Amino acid sequence: MRFVIVTGMSGAGKSSVMNMLEDIGYFCVDNLPVPLIPKLARLALESSPGFDRIALGVDIRSAAAFEDIPTTLERMKHLGFEYEILFLDASDQVLVKRYKETRRTHPLAKQGRVDKGIVQERKKMQLLKRHADYIIDTSKLLVRDLKAEVDKIFVKNTDYHNLMVSIVSFGFKYGIPTDCDLVFDVRFLPNPFYIPELKKKTGNDKEVYDYVMASREAGEFLDKLEDMVTFLFPNYIKEGKNQIVIGIGCTGGCHRSVTCANVLYERLCKQKEYSVRKEHRDIGRINI
After folding, report:
1. By C-alpha distance, which of 66, 65, 93, 70 is closest to 83?
2. pLDDT digits over 161-173, tens only?
């Protein structure tokens, strides 16, 4: 039996994940009273094979009983019940924005401010997050990206590392992305913009890719960049980070930065040690 506890910050996507798990055949129960969790696990073991995959949604709505979750989980282990914890997180700014957009009330905010409720909830959630088997930060994920992460864990059963690496290409003329943890400037590379037949193309086109990567400096830079970030990632994880945003910028964000972001993305995906996504923020400005 696979018993999954889906938890995390309110507004981080727990309901969406529960729906995804239900779609792939999990029997889903949301907001079950904490004292009933071991009973549900026992019932599933004693029932038919149809209950061999269960997803249980647990969040701060359990109120006072939420404080009993560590004891309840310890009791389950003592009784021999195996379980996994999936923790969904997002930045405070993103959570506030989501609550504003949906006009819903945060369970701990009552009639007060949403940001105050989020601070309280984050403190209460620390223990569960520390014991989580999987942590997904949904701050920058689209629904399809979140589904891909869920499928990776619960459908493909691949090894999952609790670090989401986002590689973002951008143009310095439009400003550095505010959420970048690391920023690299590739304006030292030959610029395809000044080649008439390449000017209107982007780093996603083979002609531009070949032009940029033909320079010795591009290959050397990417080798050094790959070496550095793969050194940094395990150390970031040790410090509790679960999301890293790497910005790669050139002048307009359409040629050199796109090429380098694509190459770094391909290299990190081959390592299969982290969840990697890419975004070309300013590629749509090619004709501006």
Report:
1. 70
2. 668 899 999 999 9
What CA–CA distance (Å, rounded) separates 114 from 104?
Answer: 10
Q: Where are the domains of the chain?
A: 2-154, 164-285
Residue owning tokens 């910028």: 249
Read off the tokens for 44. Answer: 């599933």
| Chain centre distance of CA 246 | 14
In eight-state DSSP terms, residue 3 is E
In terms of DSSP H, where are the helices of the chain? Answer: 14-23, 37-46, 69-78, 92-102, 114-130, 143-154, 206-213, 216-238, 256-271
Q: The domain 2-154: what is its CATH number? A: 3.40.50.300
Query: DSSP string covering 104-162, please?
Result: PPPTTTTTS-HHHHHHHHHHHHHHHHHT-SEEEE-TT--HHHHHHHHHHHHTS-----S
Which pTM does this prediction carry?
Answer: 0.69
What the block records as the tokens of 29 is: 């129960």
Q: Give 58's DSSP letter.
A: -
Edge to edge, what strands does the sheet with 275-280 contain? 182-185, 243-250, 164-171, 275-280
